């Protein structure tokens, strides 16, 4: 699916739609990398952010509309530099895919250390807030104003896996962040979606054990179905291509047959 630019996209002097610009965190692997490639193929300018340069450059693949910016999303100065680089190269920001995240330790709340908790919060929550704040300011102040933020929530924002207290708690917090952005963005043409994805075929799902036996609520282990990364990326492109007059507040996409509805 290749989409055309919405009618309210910025246009050049001849009236043709200009390429829109997306910033994607966690773009070196998984959903972030697949989404970056998908948007590049659809004609977007894409700014790829992640801790390490090599995976970002691999995702970019030398594409002329890609810009790789090594970024620590937990560092306010690093996040500000990311958005400065994006605007400096492409002039504006139309989309943020707030995707960087970590699963953290597989422990219950009784065994979660303060250091482990802080590490997960720093990436999954503080990083998401810092990136959303920078994107919001740029979208609010640019002409024409407006843009879209997609927060990668995870179905753990709705129903937890066992022994995932830090991850689940931060993902529940993303729901509040999404609603706050959607509310505060109304005056500036900024909309926000929480995209909850379940069991995409990623390294994180492999670590959880979807293929070998993931821990279930009743203490048993079972293999779980997954679905291709490309389908998650296609969902991101669908959300990104919506006109400014439409907003999807929350969207859930899971592998067919995974233990989510009635989990456990």
Automatic annotation (TrEMBL):
Keywords: Oxidoreductase. Residues 1-26 are annotated as: Disordered. Gene3D superfamilies: NAD(P)-binding Rossmann-like Domain. Coiled coil: none annotated. Residues 9-19 have a biased composition (Basic and acidic residues). Belongs to the short-chain dehydrogenases/reductases (SDR) family. This is SDR family oxidoreductase.
């Amino acid at each position: 699916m290749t989409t055309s630019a919405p009618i309210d996209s910025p246009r050049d002097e001849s009236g043709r739609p200009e390429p829109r610009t997306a910033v994607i965190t966690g773009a070196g692997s998984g959903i972030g990398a697949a989404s970056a490639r998908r948007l590049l193929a659809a004609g977007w300018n894409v700014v790829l952010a992640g801790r390490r340069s090599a995976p970002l450059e691999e995702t970019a693949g030398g594409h002329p509309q890609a810009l790789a910016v090594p970024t620590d999303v937990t560092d306010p100065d690093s996040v500000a530099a990311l958005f400065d680089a994006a605007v400096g190269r492409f002039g504006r920001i139309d989309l943020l895919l707030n995707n960087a995240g970590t699963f953290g330790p597989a422990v219950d709340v009784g065994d979660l250390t303060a250091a482990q908790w802080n590490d997960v919060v720093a990436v999954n929550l503080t990083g998401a807030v810092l990136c959303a704040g920078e994107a919001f300011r740029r979208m609010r102040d640019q002409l024409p104003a407006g843009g879209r933020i997609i927060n990668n929530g995870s179905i753990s924002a709705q129903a937890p896996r066992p022994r995932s207290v830090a991850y689940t708690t931060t993902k529940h917090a993303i729901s509040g962040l999404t609603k706050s952005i959607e509310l505060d963005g109304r005056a500036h043409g900024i909309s926000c979606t929480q995209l909850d994805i379940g069991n995409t075929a990623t390294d994180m799902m492999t670590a959880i054990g979807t293929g070998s036996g993931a821990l279930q609520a009743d203490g048993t282990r079972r293999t779980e179905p997954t679905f291709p990364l490309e389908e998650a990326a296609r969902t991101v492109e669908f959300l990104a291509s919506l006109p400014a007059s439409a907003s999807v507040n929350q969207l859930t996409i899971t592998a067919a047959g995974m233990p989510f509805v009635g989990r456990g």
